[in-house]
Amino acid sequence: MLILDNLKYAYEQTRFDFSMQVEPGSFVAIIGPSGAGKSTLLDLIAGFIAPLSGSISFNNTLFSKLSPAERPVSMIFQENNLFTHLDVETNIALGISPTLKLSQADHTSITGALARVDLQGYGKRLPGELSGGERQRVALARALVRRKPLLLLDEPFASLGPALRSQMLALVKELHEEKNLTSLLVSHQPEDARSTASHTAFLANGRIDIYEATEKFFAIRDNKALNDYQGSS
């Protein structure tokens, strides 16, 4: 279980205070207006920023003293963060070992990950030779070879067209179920939650205002902040 317990953070004049319990195997969509703290929440979990107080734990392990590299987390960003001078295979290999010291099993894992995201034969291509959707598939393959149980996705498909976006979300959901991951997806699109997530969190004013099973979440009618958000989204 992922537990956020009174996790406090501040940036300039904005204050954040997050509490949430996520059951293992959940796929959580995180939605809310700009500035509500969606990316900040993922950055705290990943360890890219440090909270002022409170705690994060996953499967009974406290994160507070763990560096980002030590946390059982893989993260995919809106910008795929591929190294443009390295080929696809090497970019994926960095998810296994920053030193690129790989075993034969590691090479087999990379080949399998490329096949799983439908990029067989792309291993020697450079990122500049790929489309935006293909680059995000490489980023997803890199997350797969890391074999980490907690997957964080920060609007990874925001720049893709509707059809490709839908395909990528479907692929992520498949992999989430196959690998028995706990996944958190930040999105500005409520329909992403409807189509993909088992649970949905709504952030407003730096807090998790609602956390509910997705079907129940979208039946809520008496929350003004949520109504305002959906009316303008």
Properties at a glance:
globular; Rossmann fold; 35% helix; alpha/beta; 8 helices; 233 residues; four-stranded antiparallel sheet
Describe the structure in your own words.
The protein has 2 domains: 156 residues, Rossmann fold; 63 residues. The protein has a 6-stranded mixed sheet, with helices on both faces. A 4-stranded antiparallel sheet has the order 2-1-4-5, with no helix packed on it. Strand 9 and strand 10 form a beta hairpin. It has 233 residues and is of the alpha/beta class. The protein contains 8 helices and 10 strands. 36% of the residues are buried. The protein is globular and about 55 Å long. The mean pLDDT is 91. Helix 4 packs parallel to helix 5.
Concise synopsis of the structure shown:
The chain is an alpha/beta fold and 233 residues long. It contains eight helices and ten strands.
Radius of gyration, whole Å: 18 Å
By helix and strand content, what is the structural category? alpha/beta
- Helical run tally: 8
- CATH hierarchy, class of the largest domain: Alpha Beta
Largest sheet: 6 strands, mixed
CATH superfamily of the largest domain: P-loop containing nucleotide triphosphate hydrolases
* Average pLDDT reading: 91
Return the string of H and E elements: EEEHEEEHHHEHEHEEHH
Kindly state the percentage of residues in helix. Answer: 25-40%
How many distinct domains? 2
**What is the percentage of strand-forming residues?**
25-35%
- Residue runs with pLDDT of under 50 for 5 or more positions: none
> In one word, what is the shape?
globular
CATH architecture of the largest domain: 3-Layer(aba) Sandwich
